[in-house]
């Protein structure tokens, strides 16, 4: 379970890094697919269930990314 939590924190951590480096994006489809696939494999869930669990977190990260980008563009 520690690995699964660490993967989630990596995604959220990427949002924080946007304040420093706007080149990092949590909208990276390949990264999202890889994280969902790893979560499914490690948890024993099917890929669709893993996506359902991760979707709210990913949506939150995307909203935060957009908010940070808007704030950065105002500066």
TrEMBL record:
Species in which this protein is naturally found: Candidatus Altarchaeum hamiconexum
Protein name (record): Chorismate mutase
SUPFAM superfamilies: Chorismate mutase II (SSF48600)
One GO MF term: chorismate mutase activity
Stored PROSITE patterns: CHORISMATE_MUT_2
GO BP terms, alphabetized: chorismate metabolic process
Membrane-spanning parts: none
InterPro entries: Chorismate_II_sf, CM_dom_sf, CM_II_prokaryot
Domain Chorismate mutase: 1-69
Taxonomy, superkingdom: Archaea
One Pfam family, short name: CM_2
């Amino acid at each position: 379970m520690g690995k699964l939590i660490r993967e989630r924190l990596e995604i959220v951590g990427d949002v924080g890094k946007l304040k420093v480096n706007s080149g990092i994006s949590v909208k990276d489809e390949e990264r999202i697919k890889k994280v969902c696939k790893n979560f499914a494999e490690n948890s024993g869930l099917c890929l669709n269930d893993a996506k359902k669990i991760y979707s709210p977190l990913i949506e939150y990260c995307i909203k935060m990314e957009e908010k940070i980008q808007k704030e950065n563009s105002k500066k």
